[in-house]
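Extended Data, panel c. Modelled sequence:
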Amino acid sequence: QVQLVESGGGLVQAGGSLTLSCAASGRTFSSYAMAWFRQAPGKEREFAATISWSGGRIRYADSVKGRFTISRDNAKNTLYLKMNSLKPEDTAVYYCAARIDIGTFSTTTSQYPYWGQGTQVTVSS
């Protein structure tokens, strides 16, 4: 019942920063837990970060912890992923995803029914 559109991807040098956005429309944005996943060529789509509907509960994958920050602005119906200290291994298509927030974390793709089209992030060495 929600539509998601990612933006903000691009080419950056290693050590640089980039901020991704995900604009949501449709059903009430505030009722959804949101997440960022990423997928490199030839690899499985993997969890990066998730945030509860209120923003009070946040989890990160170990691979991005301390470098990435997930946030949301419910008034703007927008999810963000601020990425710092980028590494070449961060190169991937980044997807935002949504699910009805039932008070539990989810880090698996199968539990998110709503997905954006993805945005490419390329980190050069």
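The mean pLDDT is 95. This feature is highlighted in the accompanying rendering.
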